[in-house]
Amino acid sequence: MSSPIRSRTAGVIAGGVLLAALIGGGVGAATIAALDDGGSGATTTVVREAAQPTSSSSSQVADSTESVADIAKASLPSVVDITVTTSGGDPQTGNQPARAEGSGWVYDDQNHVITNQHVVDNSTSIKVTTQDGSTYDATLVGTDPSTDLAVIKVNAPAGKLQPLQLGDSDALVVGDGVVAIGSPFGLEGSVTSGIVSALHREMQAPNGFTINDSIQTDAAINHGNSGGPLIDLSGNVIGVNAQIESDGGGSDGVGFAIPASTIRTVVPELISSGKVQHAYLGVKIQTIGSDVSAQLNAAAGAAVADVTAGSPAATAGLKAGGAEKTIDGVPYPTGGDVITAFDGKAIATSTELQLAVDSKKPGDKVELTVVNGGKTRTVTVTLGTRPDSIS
N or C: which end of the chain has fewer CB within 10 A? Predict the structure, then answer.
């Protein structure tokens, strides 16, 4: 099944099976559950196994002396339970206002709290409960459905809320210990622990685009953990728990968190302007590896499977493949453009192209090296602003 991991009594967020991100979709997707509980609707979300680059860094927690108990004691006062009333009634309760519950954590000394966008989506009121049982009203500061991040501001006395430190998710290695804190099934202040199971996963955001570099963990997270922190053994936040993969809807030891690197770029913009503008190319893409490129009679790189009408890619004349060939059970687009470089940097996978576009701003001009039918050309594209959702 699939659904988000906040606990709620109404229908869950709408999602789609297309893993398109700002530029492309892929293959080998597995159905996962965004961390929502209950609900009358099921969200279909996907996670793709992205390439796992070899890390030369050593474990950032190899010499840590903090135990899970130490981290829990220090962090619990900074993790909050979030209850929202949402617009749009629940048909099962006679269209009465729906309620949802999730988690969050204190970001700074200005009472800003980070959570998931899907936790506060369509909210008409937000209340926050701290570890000591105090409850405060909160207001929505900003949301970014492309990364499933949101910021709320809590109407609490100065100094009441103590922020957690943001860590370095880029320094993580597989096997590092982690701690998850949140309100699974409404059980506030629950603490679980595990390891980083994998890095560089890709999740589908609420609006259908892709969240890159997601962290996979076996720390138990369930419905209601949405928005809670994933903490390293130095006590720093290295992710926001957002989704699980589960056949039965509960924790099967496969959870996913939005990385601190994404938090670090998105949250300041949400606080300053309430929204984030992402660069947009407008293609669905798929990796053509060197192991299959000869069989496809195509270059290795990011193959253009579809071009969105009216997008920057369409304006620049990028061409989608008009046919398809299946190799070892995997269908590949054929006959279209394959992007092999972005501003002179080689592109080997669709993920690399996504990250390259993510690093730019709307309005930036970029040069793409494109191969089609054995012929190479350079295409100049003026990136646009990512739409609210995939059409």
Answer: C
